[in-house]
Structure formats: structure tokens, C-alpha cells
Amino acid sequence: MIYYVGGIMTRKMNNELADATIALSKQYKGTKAAERWMSGEDSPLNSWFMPDIEYPDIARHLSDRLCDAMSQICDGLNMEYKVKPTEFWYNVYDNTQYQEQHTHNPGIFSVVYFNKMPEGSAPFTFEGKEMDLNKQTEGSAIFFPSYVMHGVERGTNTEPRITWAMNFQ
Questions:
Q1: For 75, phi and psi rounded to 5 degrees?
Q2: What is the DSSP letter of 80?
Q3: Which of 2, 116, 122, 164 has the fewest beta carbons under 10 Å from its own?
Q4: CA–CA dist 167, 146 (Å, integer)
Q5: CA distance 95 to 62
Q6: E-strand spans in 23-118?
Q7: pLDDT tens digits for range 14-34
Q8: Are 139 and 8 in contact (CB under 8 A)?
């Protein structure tokens, strides 16, 4: 049960989000997932479990759009239970960083939004298997059950690879 959703944001909004994300990652420079949970030393700069971070309006807009898409997926699955967002964070990868295979338990669904995927970006993987790179395009998102192992290998990108993620319970 993996869902790809395109057109989450316009190109202009996507670029605005990328600029805001880079600014946030500079503001919180040196803050890595490895410092907040059991993650590898070369994990990306991110805002996972930073409850005091002040996200800009463009990030809130993305959150709203992802929640709308999740609601439509739940409606399509005829789910009576309405899932609610529990965490929201960004990831900024350079070509030395990766995210080891992991799950988002105890969530029900998770989503990764592909904000910037420059040439050489490593693909998002499920259980170590590469997913369709043609679907991992800027402005698209992938929704999946939170218990599925997923991660990102090191890329060869010279520009930042930027994603946003959200969990639902």
C-alpha cells in the first residue's frame, strides 16, 4: 500500500520551501538526528524531534497539503478512523549523508515529500530496494505504512537533496 501523489505544491512554492529549509538548516547547523535518536553519524541535517522549531508559513502550507492528501487516501480506503499528524520535519542531505533503513512505528502512515532532488540524489528505498526514480520528483510525495523499513543511501549530488516527512496516527 504505497501511494505516490504529484502536484502537492507549485514549482514557485516548492522553491520557496527549499529556500526556507536551507535557512532553517543553517540556523540549526550541527543539529543531526544522531544527536537525538539512534541514527548514523552521517545522517542528514534535520529537524526531527525539535519541538521548539518555528516553521515558516510555507512549511505550514505543505503540512496542510500533506494532511489533505492523507485524508483523501483514507477516504479511498474507506477508513472510518481519521488519522492525525503527529510529527513533521525536514531533511537536508549532501553527498556524504544517508539515512539508514528504519521504520516510523508506532505511526500508522508516513509520508516523504520530495522538495529538491538534484542530479545525483540517492533514491528513497523500501527495505533496501530502490523505488521508481521517475516518481520521486520535486513536488511529489510518497505515502506508506509506517512499519515499512525505508531509507536513503549516499548520493553524488552537489546541491542539497531536501525532503520533508510527516507521521500520522
A1: -60, -40
A2: S
A3: 2
A4: 7
A5: 25
A6: 45-46, 85-93, 99-102, 109-116
A7: 999 999 999 998 887 655 544
A8: yes
Neighbours of 27 (CB within 10 A): 10
Q: What are phi and psi of 161, to 5 degrees?
A: -90, 125
What is 3-168's CATH superfamily?
q2cbj1_9rhob like domain (2.60.120.620)
- As a whole number of Å, the CA-based R_g of the chain is 15
47 CB-contact burial (10 Å; exposed 0-12 / middle 13-18 / buried 19+): buried
pLDDT value for 33: 47
- By the 10 Å C-beta count (0-12 exposed, 13-18 middle, 19+ buried), 86 is classed as middle
CA distance 98 to 43: 5
Helix ranges (H only) for the chain are 11-27, 57-76
What residue ranges do the domains of the chain occupy?
3-168
Strand partners, 111: 143, 166
Strand-pair partners of 27: none
In 3D space, the residue among 82, 112, 68, 90 whose CA is nearest the CA of residue 160 turns out to be: 90
